[in-house]
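Section 5: illustrative case.
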């Protein structure tokens, strides 16, 4: 009886552990995607700003 309870407990513990690792993996992947998108947006803003500044300098000169 003890071995059945131990087996059930270990199986349940392994399932909970596996499920939580899956959720953590998904959270990390989403966080990395958000960071990548933010960096891409910032790079685009920087590029457009540099283009506008270059056009402004050309029109003044």
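Designed sequence:
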């Amino acid at each position: 009886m003890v071995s059945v309870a131990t087996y059930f407990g270990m199986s349940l513990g392994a399932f909970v552990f596996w499920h939580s690792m899956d959720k953590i993996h998904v959270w990390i992947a989403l966080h990395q995607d958000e960071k990548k998108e933010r960096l891409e947006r910032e790079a685009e803003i920087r590029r457009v700003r540099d283009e506008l500044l270059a056009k402004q300098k050309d029109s003044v000169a």
